[in-house]
Amino acid sequence: MQGKRGGKLMFGFERLRGRSQAGAAVAQQSPDGQATVPVVLEGKGLSKMYGTGDSATWALSHCDVTVGRGEILVVVGPSGSGKSTLMHLLAGLDRPTEGVASLNGQDLGSMSDAEAARFRAKHIGFVLQRANLIPSLTVRENVAAPLMLSDVSRSEALERADAMLKRVGIGSRAGAFPAQVSGGEAQRAAVARACVVEPLVVFADEPTGAVDRAAGNVVMDLFEELVGEKQTSAVIVTHDERVASRGNAILRMLDGRRVE
Amino acid sequence: MNLIPGVRLVARSLVRAFAAHRFRAVAAIFAGAMCVTLTTGVRVVAVSVEQAIDGSTLSSVADADLAVVSRSASGMGLATVHSMHASSPGARLAPVLLADTRVGHEEGDPLVVAGVTPATASFLPADQRKAVRRLKSDNSPSVVLGRAWAEGQGLEVGSQLPIETPHGHVTWRVAALVSGSVPNRGAFAVAPFDAVARAFERPGVADLVLASGPGSTEQLRRGLEYGARPTASVVPPDEAMQSYRNAFATTRNLLNIFVGIAVLAAGAILFFTWRLTLDDARESLARLRLCGARTSHLAIGSALVLGGIFLCSVAVGGPLGILLGYSLSGFSRTLVSLTQLAASPGTPIVRPLSESIGVSLLIFFVALAVSIVSIRRMPVIEAVVGRRTVASTRSSWTLVAAIVSVVALAASLAMLLLLPSDERQAALVPLLILLAAVSLLMPLLVGGVIRRRPAFASLAAGRELALNARRTATLLAVFALAISMAIGLEGAAGSLKDGISRSVRAWTIGDLFVQTAESGTNLQEDKLSPSVISDLSGIEGVRSVGFFTYSTVDLHDTRIPIWTWGPDGESDRYAHLTSTHGPSRAALWRALDDGSSVAVSSNYARLYGTGIGDRIAIPATNGQRVLKVVAIVDDLSSSAGMLVTSPNVYRSITGDGRYYQVIVDLHPGASTTRVADRIDHLLSSRYPRLTVYDRSEIRDRFDVLTGQLVQAFVVFGQIMFLLALLIGGATLATSLSLRQRSLALTRLVGAPVGLVRRQLLREAVALGVAAWLMAVPIGIGCVYALIAAISAQSGLLPAAHLPTGLIFLALPLAVVLSVLALLVSAPRRRIPVMVAALAEE
Questions:
Q1: Edge to edge, what strands does the sheet with A257-258 contain?
Q2: How far apart are CA A185 and CA A138, in angstroms?
Q3: ipTM value > 0.85
Q4: Which end of chain A is more exposed for a tag (fewer CB within 10 A), N or C?
Q5: How many Å lie between the alpha carbon of B410 and the closest alpha carbon of chain A?
Q6: Integer Cα distance of A43 and B307 in angstroms
Q7: Which of A48, A134, A208, A239 has the highest number of chain B CBs within 10 A, making it the mutation to test binding with B?
Q8: What are the residues whose beta carbons fall under 8 Å from the beta carbon of B104, sequence distance 6 or more?
Q9: Could you tell me the pTM of the whole model?
Q10: Which of B222-226, B302-306, B572-576, B615-619 has the weakest average pLDDT?
Q11: Contact A149 B753 (CB under 8 A)
């Protein structure tokens, strides 16, 4: 990954160009032009440097991002382009070297570990490329985990998990362990877990990268359906153009910078 | 792939897998080092005692075809020697009289004095013959000493050597110093036969006869046996002390048991850590196979890495083992002192170290064999598809474990309840099988209980314990084994100590006990003259004076003590012996007074299958006495068993009128301190190391002596805890490393670090509690089984006392052990940074 300092990335500016115009319209103004869609996720001047001294590299450089409520932002780029770094900063999993990431107006970088964990449990969902599920919990318990960590009672959490698993079509696999389900089933369970808390935003890092095309389509269909239903925002990092076409807006990156 | 490059690649992968988990590497090296250390230390003690015993007599350096050894510690009569002359015409025979005593100075170094005739000189090395032939037996007899020892004592030719005798000190003139082989590591004085007999009040007897014959050795043997039996045994010269070595066998076997357990435990640590290393390196090794590495590359590479660990273990453990051996030299000396020989134990290094290296090499070979089996099972396709693990909380092995548990439990209970007390050691096998089988089931049970609690941390902890049942079972088995062995060893040791203490109290009922030296340091000649009785009777405050004395006889190829209390007709005043069979107390002594009876201790009866009415042929100075067993005495103080006779019978067997201990009864109201001082004033000039104990002091002294011997059990239990901590820490460290992503995912979905720590802590506490629940019943069973194992060795069968304090203390200890193992595995460093743990390849 190589990035050079300088070169601002203006997400809003990107969406006024090319195929992202509709997305830009959602972020800034509702389709009927009547009201502004609230910004759920915002990154201002986000930069991330790894290493020190002569070995320091900027993986991300001065990136501004806004994601409105219900919007699906797709971040595309080759390996090492900084897209995962951007996602980690936006999700509060890592602290930026410069800049601020805020979700629903809350600065994620200033929270303590306990506050951040609670916030994640209630407001953020994650779908990773593979091995999403905690191996020692059943599929049902995996899906219920964020609910239980949000102080929902265990019985209610498990009930809601069962309902969500049925929604994504793997209700019969609720009692299985992750090692006993297929890759596609595991990804559907991950989507269920990400959405069961009705989060503000779901971050998905290559959600179809480890499954076949058919399973990938099913996963993305479910994803779109669940986030659309509750006006959940989403940030999807992918290098798969088919996945990219599912988003409202696209952000292209290369070597830590925007690509024209 | 060529051999050397292939081997190098494999070795490098394994070394990196090992080094990536430093704690595991430390644990493996520590295990190997501990094996070498403990084995060396214990073998130094055992070998030093054996070598001291073997080297303490003249036959160890003499050039003789055979040795005739008296079966009584009081010696064989000269009539027996004459009989052998007659039955072996033409044979060269040289009688030797041995006295185990001390140099008569403050330090009181042990010294063997050998009384010899001029005929003995022909059996000695050439450079010693002339000196021995010139020995004079006059008023100040001459003595020949080893040069090195004499110079260490500040003696030279013409010096006066002070020696302790039953009459007090005598001084003998140093006639010559000899170099070359001298028995007893130099602490050996050769003097004229008659002078030794006079000085030690042993007229008309010899302890040893050196023999060489004109014909074959077998011919000579037959002739000698005809003349010597039953008073003496005919043996090769290097087996002259065999019966004394056999008397040490019980202690030696117990020491070997400790070594065995230490080796097994070290082997277990090595096995687990190496197995985990192979698991970690499995992916790399599979990919190497994909590239062309053969099984031989993998096997040799494994051998190289294990060899490196082995060398590190030896480098660390060898010096530590030698240091341990040196630090245990006091214990060696105590063991030698208990034989009452003036043997001088050294600190042998080469043989114990070689044996320990050999033993640890064995466990490394086992680990290597495991590697090779595991490697051969590694399919190449794993390099492509990875290792498929199927998580399941139930599988076929669960049912097998359940069945095995039930069968093992039934077998254990049956053996403990139905077998005779001295056969229950067989229960150790099903008990250990039960422990292993239950450890496979407990994770499911414990995990199932914990995960039902409402907290998420409990759910996660319970699932983790149950899902990784094999790893959890390993930890449980290790912790439970440590706790159960600690309970078993403490219980067995405590029961033995209590039993011995009870026995001691039966015969320490006088007010004062007078000895020539402290208990536990007495040598065979450390005895009081009979005149002491009348000397002490005249002291104000003294109501009566009795005695206790003992000797040993060679029965069943070992030295059996023969005890008596007196004077005749008053034995019950000084020893309240109770019997398990036959008469007790005064009735016992009346039965023994008939002159043809003997009582045996309970462990003697058990060891040799002796019952009431049986007859025992006891070797005497000339011939033997056949005595009828009239009682089995409940006494645990001698590990080889013992015989009790009346004073009359004792004298007729041993011909020895001296006393090991004089017992003083005081008038009511008399001051023990004043009388003790008076006794000391009266006798200390004759007996410079005179010791006067009151009742509580002598009981405490025996408690200390017993405590020293059983302390090894307790220390061993503590070592088991330490080993469990090491294994637990190594296993937990690996487990946490493998759970990096899982823990990161837990944090990702909203668990704070504190909750993850709580989860880990709950797992550790659950492990500790589960281990305790398993260990307590098994440990209780082990108490009875270990007592039976001790009984199989020594016949001693104390009443079992359960260590209730330790049983309850073991619960918090088990939890602390488990939590410590978690802390040692450094969980703080192992709760991952989410981003790093979740990063895709």
A1: A124-127, A201-205, A233-238, A72-76, A249-254, A257-258
A2: 13
A3: no
A4: C
A5: 34
A6: 56
A7: A134
A8: B162, B163, B164, B169, B170, B171, B688
A9: 0.77
A10: B302-306
A11: no
